[in-house]
Amino acid sequence: MPELEFLGTGDAGQVPRWGCDCGACQRARLDPARKRRPCSAALHTEEGTTLIDAGCTDLAERFAFDDIRRVLLTHFHMDHVQGLFHLRWGQCRSKIPVYRPDDPKGADDLYRHPGVFEFQPPCPAFERQQFPGFNLTPLPLLHSRPTQGLLIETPRTRLAWLTDTLGLPRVTQDFLQQQPRLDWLVLDCSEPPRQTPPRNHNDLTRALHTHHLLTPGRTLLTHIGHEFDDWLESDRGDLPATVSIARDGLRISL
Amino acid sequence: MPELEFLGTGDAGQVPRWGCDCGACQRARLDPARKRRPCSAALHTEEGTTLIDAGCTDLAERFAFDDIRRVLLTHFHMDHVQGLFHLRWGQCRSKIPVYRPDDPKGADDLYRHPGVFEFQPPCPAFERQQFPGFNLTPLPLLHSRPTQGLLIETPRTRLAWLTDTLGLPRVTQDFLQQQPRLDWLVLDCSEPPRQTPPRNHNDLTRALHTHHLLTPGRTLLTHIGHEFDDWLESDRGDLPATVSIARDGLRISL
Ligand SMILES: [Mn+2]
Ligand SMILES: [Mn+2]
Ligand SMILES: [Mn+2]
Ligand SMILES: [Mn+2]
Ligand SMILES: [Zn+2]
Ligand SMILES: [Zn+2]
């Protein structure tokens, strides 16, 4: 059965943040299970592994070259692509296709020196692509760069991976509301509740708003910053029953 | 006494290279002491630590925020700066100055979002700057981007860190030949002897040519690719007595 493995559930600064002594950062230094690395995942199917973003920089140690079938990128911020800069110089037996949003800049010199990677032409929003074991549909998000959410459909399960985003564009909200209900919503929630939302990311208030709009079977909050992580330590009792906090290493069956 | 710690001695692909089964890469997978991470170092003095390049991506785990006094960058290729993308979001009590070559592009969005780092105005070539415990003089190199070598002088020792480069510009060669002899030369040697030199890097032939021009007390070859590493396994007997191969974790007293 396909499985989604959360490789990282942190924001760009990760948890612990370098030099920070807040409660969440101190706890993460003492207990590696509380670390939050860059927000990303590995989708394991019978065919092999599909990476969802590549912000972790130890991917070469965790995954065999021959096991990686493709990379799905939400956007080209460094916390989502920095792991590719080393991987690209892999010893190339076959190219690894990278599916990406329509962002002509990419990241640094990745387009010019892609190495083992083969950047695919951007796929139009809402157009379903078929891969062995799952379908993929890109969903526009609201972020500071062109960013696509990923609707992943296996024979049994529908999951939407929506990072990085502040709320949802109307077209994406309408599309998801017209489709069968999601089993899983994986959603950007970078910060604790704020009076004014953070720029380009959800705080808890806006994340719960999206959760209530889409009423998925379960919501997993991710892209979690150290302040939200610290806030959760005292206040997580207030979350709706179907909302949980993702953690690094979490695996869910699809 | 000041000490220079080699954090990495590999080329951009590192050793082992992802997916490679050459002898060097196999040995490095079996024996962590043979790994070669991105070419970089930490200069430890009484004052604290000065980073020389920042291609390693675990710097936040290896160095306390308060211990890092500054970063010296040779150039803005990703294998020399990728570690800064996470560090920059550190919890900022004071800024960390970054000394860099005159490269208006930098790397990705580092200049626009420097976080804890404070990029200093480029220092003119051959102009000596004083820091607690050592002096620094930038030396122009020959590479595909603006790149500066680093002449580091402590009260007892003179060391030149020359990566990445193919040979030396005439002005740098003349400057070093007119100065007192170097105690240590740390030199780009990415590849085994080649009929035509690699682009932008030394092969062993060109590295030894520079060694003979400068006649330092000792030369340490670094920025080593897996093919050179594999070649060394059989042929290293041919190196001059004052030339050695750097390895990750090596420490030398300055
Ligand atoms: Mn992000
Ligand atoms: Mn982002
Ligand atoms: Mn390099
Ligand atoms: Mn370079
Ligand atoms: Zn913190
Ligand atoms: Zn190899």
UniProtKB/TrEMBL annotation, chains A, B:
Gene3D superfamilies to which the protein is assigned, alphabetical: Ribonuclease Z/Hydroxyacylglutathione hydrolase-like
Gene Ontology MF terms in the entry: phosphoric diester hydrolase activity
SUPFAM superfamilies in UniProt: Metallo-hydrolase/oxidoreductase
UniProt xrefs under CDD domains: PhnP-like_MBL-fold
Matching Pfam families: Lactamase_B_2
Annotated GO biological process: organic phosphonate catabolic process
Source domain of life: Bacteria
Protein name: Phosphonate metabolism protein PhnP
